[in-house]
Amino acid sequence: MEFATFADRAAAIEAEPADLETVARVATLLEDAADGDGGRTVAVVARYVQGRVFPAWTSRTLDIGPSACYEAIARAAGTNVSPDDVEDRLAEVGEIGDVAASYDFGGQRGLSAFAGGDDSANGGGGLTVPEVDEALYELAAAEGSGSQDRKVDLLFGLFNRCSSDEARYLARLVLSEMRIGVGEGTVRNAIGEAFDVPVERVERALQVSNDYGEVARVAREDGREGLDAMTLEVGRPVQAMLAQAGTVTGALEDWDEAGVEWKYDGARVQLHYDPGGVAIDGADATVAADDAGEIRVFSRNMEDVTDALPEVVEFADEHLAEPAILDGEVVAVDDDGEPLPFQEVLKRFRRKHDVAKAREDVAVRPVFFDCLHADGEDLLEEPLTTRHERLEAVLREDSEREPDEVEGLSLLWRTDDPDEIERIDADALEAGHEGLMLKDPDSTYSPGRRGKHWRKRKPDVETLDCVVTGAEWGEGRRATFLGTFELSVRDGDGEKRRSAGSAVEPRNLETVGKVATGITDEKLAELTELLEPHVASEDGTRVELEPAVVFEVGYEEIQTSPTYSSGYALRFPRFVGVRSDKDPADADTVERLERLRG
Ligand SMILES: Nc1ncnc2c1ncn2[C@@H]1O[C@H](COP(=O)(O)OP(=O)(O)OP(=O)(O)O)[C@@H](O)[C@H]1O
């Protein structure tokens, strides 16, 4: 296919306002791109309409900045045009495609025009889509000293053969500004329409391959059967499944049992391990195959972060034996292996230089919660419980080991008991993690989807200010800290008395729950110092406190309860902070609990 034809079609697609018509136009473009070249042109066109030069799964880029592109345009436009002129025009016109289209590149064409071709009508230089693709791959591959000049030369060579419309879309493609209104869904539907294959099968093929070009090629060459035969490949990243916000109550209503996991506060990683060490075609390998095999680590956005995270590479090297794709989180840890806040992981994540030094400052540890592929078998369509069993098997080096002894494994509980979930939540927070993930145990893995099958516990929208009226001395290493704080709210009488000017007395406070979670050792020490002067009496480990300190507390739900004197209980209470600006007289009331309950 001529690049001029692609440009014409792109212009028509850009001008088309209706979605269905856009799909139809893209479908026709794909059909017409079938040049009898084994589907190569179809693949390129399926990427270009979305403004992609490379498959979605690769982090490869052209590595060319706007100024190099302005320089190439200026050179192709003639001796009296400078890169500054191009930039000035861009400032005027506002869009690089229009700028590129505004020059006449014919004067520089020289030999290529002389060589003929029937492009005189459109002023183009007979460029074909595969030629553009080849040149852009060559441009991307240019590295080292002089590579920027080489890139500009290659781009100049292309612009020099462009008509106005070709130049418009080439410039946009190169600067990732295609924007002709064609999104992923449009291309997916267009592939279905063009090659008469069911859209769900196209969707599945896209999920496993992450490459619109390859899916278009296979759909054209081998139809539905070809698409169904496409599989995951170790070394080619998969889009991460995402979570929605949700509640424990909602999860237990929707599912017979909830899958419950700790939510780690780190950064998402996908580990690809192939002991055979076979490099994947076209991948931007940074870690070469070594004795340990091929190991790659990708970020949530499928960026190759292998070099930045040697601990994950070492983990794979030590613990894995069979080809696998694992989904997990990398968490920053202190010298005792205790988790550090998320910001610490970011210091490591995309680090390109001084990785060893950065590693000394902040160490990271991977935890895996899913297994997408093991030993030649794709598991995306298996239920979560099966995938988790495979994960356990992949990570377990010794069959005697209990799941909680398997290094790098995130545990999965299945339960319909809210109290058990509360305990798991408390343990997660106690261990310094973020809270809970709730997952439908029967759900398949849907790459790139933010569905209802994975839910992160909804952040607390409303918080309550509660008076701390009691506490318990901790156990073990926490024996010198007060913990498990009893929370109370004011009752209506307290409200009246306050307006009459008197202080709140303990009997005007009604208990509403206990909070033990969401508090680090450091914070507990601070709270103990704050509360100890207010100890009114002690009975064993139990302590009564004069009302003096107000905690801001999050929760998931307010339930009626015979356990507490207010008649209500906070479900999943968590410590948010001390309201040192508030007195007990400013704490929330039973009436507010009633109102919030609705
Ligand atoms: N056990 C777990 N299962 C799944 N994801 C987990 C787990 N533990 C931690 N996570 C992390 O939690 C993320 C989902 O939570 P959250 O939505 O807070 O992440 P985000 O990246 O801040 O935002 P979002 O994914 O909503 O854009 C996952 O992408 C993953 O990185």
UniProtKB/TrEMBL annotation:
E.C. numbers: 6.5.1.1
Coiled coil: none
CDD domains, sorted: Adenylation_DNA_ligase_Arch_LigB, OBF_DNA_ligase_Arch_LigB
Residue intervals of the ATP-dependent DNA ligase family profile domain: 357-491
Domain of life per record: Archaea
Catalytic activity: ATP + (deoxyribonucleotide)n-3'-hydroxyl + 5'-phospho-(deoxyribonucleotide)m = (deoxyribonucleotide)n+m + AMP + diphosphate
Keywords: ATP-binding, Cell cycle, Cell division, DNA damage, DNA recombination, DNA repair, DNA replication, Ligase, Magnesium, Metal-binding, Nucleotide-binding
Keyword Cytoplasm found: no
A Pfam family assignment: DNA_ligase_A_C
Active site, UniProt feature: 263
The protein's name: DNA ligase
Organism this protein belongs to: Natronococcus jeotgali DSM 18795
Lineage of the species this protein comes from: Archaea, Methanobacteriati, Methanobacteriota, Stenosarchaea group, Halobacteria
